Amino acid sequence: MSVALVRNPGEGTHYRYYDSVQEQVVSTNETQGVVSVARLTMRRADAPPLHVHSREDESWVVLSGRVRFWIGSSSLDTCEVHDAGPGTYIFGPRSVPHTLQPITTTAEVLVINNPGAIEGYFRSVGLADARNDAEHVDSLAEYGVALLDDPPQA
Fold first, then answer.
1. How many CB atoms lie under 10 A from the CB of residue 92?
2. Strands 13-18 vs 67-71: parallel, antiparallel or unpaired
3. Exposed/middle/buried for 81, CB within 10 Å: 0-12, 13-18, 19+?
4. Separation CA 123–CA 134 (nearest Å)
5. What is the mean pLDDT of the chain?
6. For the sheet containing 67-71, what is the strand order?
7. What phi and psi values does residue 16 have, to the nearest 5 degrees?
8. Residue 66 Rama label (left phi>0; alpha psi -120 to 50; beta)
9. Could you give the percent of the chain with pLDDT greater than 70?
């Protein structure tokens, strides 16, 4: 990438992911695979299962609301738990299990993946009535992601 990129909220590409809409703030195509950034407005039911990435590091910036993060173990019961409010930055290196869930009714979060290939998975899921990651285990494995435990209770 030889030029800077400035993108204001709402200016990214929007796409369906289960029963929500995500904004692709920065695409892996725009950064030659270096990074992918998505803006999510999450509800409690949008929490992913506890999972681990083998190919990318993941970071989050909480923009609004409060979010609980489970990090570092193969089950929710044994993970470290951290609550994060607006302005908090969280780094999840590859190979470290994690999940997140809003504590508030909704929360807005930037999700940053380095490198950005996992973006292909998120875009491939498309519209569904509710989140069901277990239906996509094979596709997740193609992106180096393994599910370890159920999502937190909604």
1. 22
2. unpaired
3. exposed
4. 17
5. 93
6. 80-84, 67-71, 98-102, 50-53, 145-149
7. -80, 140
8. beta
9. 99
